[in-house]
Amino acid sequence: MIYLDNNATTRVHPEVAKAMSPFLDDEYGNPSTGYDLGRRSNKAVADARNQVAEFLNSGAEEIVFTSCGTESDNTAIFSAITAMPEKRHIVTTSIEHSAVIAFAKAVLPGLDVTELSVNEEGIINLEDLKAAIRPDTALVTIMWANNETGVCQPVREASSITKESGTLFHTDAVNAAGKIPIDVSSSDIDFLSISGHKFHAPKGIGALYVRNGAPYKPLLIGGGQEDGKRAGTEAVAQIVALGKASELAAERLNDQGQEKLSGLRDALEQSLMDNIKGTVLNGSSRFRLPNTSHLSFDNVDAGDLLILANDKGLCIASGSACSTGTREPSRIMKAMGHTDERALSSIRLSVSSMNTEQEIEESSQIIISCVEKIRSLRSDGPVIFSS
Ligand code: PLP
Questions:
Q1: Atom 5 of ligand 1 has which residue's CA nearest to it?
Q2: Does the reported pTM lie above 0.85?
């Protein structure tokens, strides 16, 4: 099997599995207890907090462990709205993950939500952001990198515009973390979400960066864990895993990790462009994650391509993992102004540092042969992409 769906989830790194395994075995103490078994768990959680803080260049006390990226996103929005009840407006974008947009719209009744549109490259306009912020805006939440296209937003600029107006800024960095460097200290970001399973930790662990001094209200209330910011007995093994995955990701990024990812991605993209007529890239080629390629193939149904590729042992995605199974065109592609045909012909290829050059060559051959087969079976003429 070849796995090229690393924006959906990633394989747990062997060193991460090794680091967490004692905490699934002998080291089962509750970190809030006073005897040695519990104290060791407590120390493991503190060490992991330092590792995550180093990865994001924050203070350790600014890291709150959560159960996933969704919880981190929900908490940031809930916190801003609850800490400032007089402010009932948030600004976001039309391409956010549903963990942001669905929560803001459905779970928080009476909230006024402004969605910034994106251009054909998938990028917001900062002038639109300036115009959208109002005196009653509690939060601006703009994702760092889109999970489908990999396109990155100008988050640093957006956070400083937001700060000038005295509003809080959150970014969903769930699909950016581990692929590009993140440095919260050099930005005006107040809240930042990450999720372990996107960078080689297991599922079920995330973190929210909360800038020192940012108004904060917890979503989960109970025992005073996480300094009162997130109740619930700490998932020690998963937290240790997130710490180790953060340490490894930081090392990879320091050691030409981005170049390795973009080398694999670009080789695959180029080969498909050269060998499949009517291949187009969706989203900015410049402002995107080094691991992601989002392509449309003229006259090819991406659903058929997925099935054929799967039969040959290749895992790829059309749309985001969360919307796979529906035959609706991706709302991200629609937000970028593309036609239904182009959206329904699009696939996402997302590599990780665990992929090899040989896998990339094999994947290319598989996709080329699947596209040829699909086209040979179609009786209608080519669909010409108009946007
Ligand atoms: N935000 C983005 C950009 C994502 O890609 C995802 C997962 O696909 C999430 C949030 C939700 O993260 P989790 O699966 O950890 O809840």
A1: 147
A2: yes
